[in-house]
Amino acid sequence: xxxxxxxxxxxxxxxxxxxxxxxxxxxxxxxxxxxxxxxxxxxxxxxxxxxxxxxxxxxxxxxxxxxxxxxxxxxxxxxxxxxxxxxxxxxxxxxxxxxxxxxxxxxxxxxxxxxxxxxxxxxxxxxxxxxxxxxxxxxxxxxxxxxxxxxxxxxxxxxxxxxxxxxxxxxxxxxxxxxxxxxxxxxxxxxxxxxxxxxxxxxxxxxxxxxxxxxxxxxxxxxxxxxxxxxxxxxxxxxxxxxxxxxxxxxxxxxxxxxxxxxxxxxxxxxxxxxxxxxxxxxxxxxxxxxxxxxxxxxxxxxxxxxxxxxxxxxxxxxxxxxxxxxxxx
Length: 330
Fold this sequence. Notes:
The chain is of the alpha+beta class. 33% of the residues lie in helices and 15% in strands. Among the domains are: 9-85, no CATH class; 204-319, Transferase(Phosphotransferase), domain 1, CATH 1.10.510. The strands form 4 sheets. The protein has a 5-stranded antiparallel beta sheet, covered by helices on one side. It starts with 8 loop residues before the first helix and ends in an 11-residue tail after the last helix. The relative contact order is 0.08.
């Protein structure tokens, strides 16, 4: 009897996996790294198969004898939370991008219904940050939208607690009302309950962009900028909100006027209990603008922590991009 042998399909699939991985990493550089592998399923029921993979295999490039084994393997992998790398929102974002690259039509606004995507500003894996405008209204003011992504390893209670804290923080900022040195923030509804923060935007960008583009800033303008930042801080401190991350990247410039933005790391004092929007497992990134007392294991949070950042900004403006050191010790 003649035996027919096929070339190993994993060989050709390996190249496809490399292309897909390269595409994924270029489109989503802030997402978790993924291991993309070839899985072969034999569907000929009359074939004599030797050396097929067990559905609980953890080895790369498995070969299954039938579709039933593939289904069992999928359920096994799906049930193992240690293997999860992306949350639901991230998976949807990847699927939409892949459809776009496969030639399927997709509207320009892929993030939020009713909005056109202007620019993707995402630089972290815990939230999506984009510039958008209402669909079809090219002359409409551009808005910034930040979508806070749930922790894929968190249970329902932890997710609900995180969302409640995020909403409470947004409400605290809204309670300040219109203030010339605080960027207006409001909530957008989402069918899956994700916390979405919308705010006005400025073509001038952030204070960090302002410093980079203007170089040396004269003393009068420097004092004006610092005074505006302090006015904004005094307003949020009256609402028992501490920003915790005052730095040039968290200050929007609008016609030369500084406005505080990015309150996701802020502390809100409520019922004598401070809490933060970001889960406690996420540590503040080391920065010269962060006050030493904010780094773990120190947990005291006071208004003075915000003023520390203002002082460093003042120094940076006066000395024009001086070399700043991170201070973790009081």
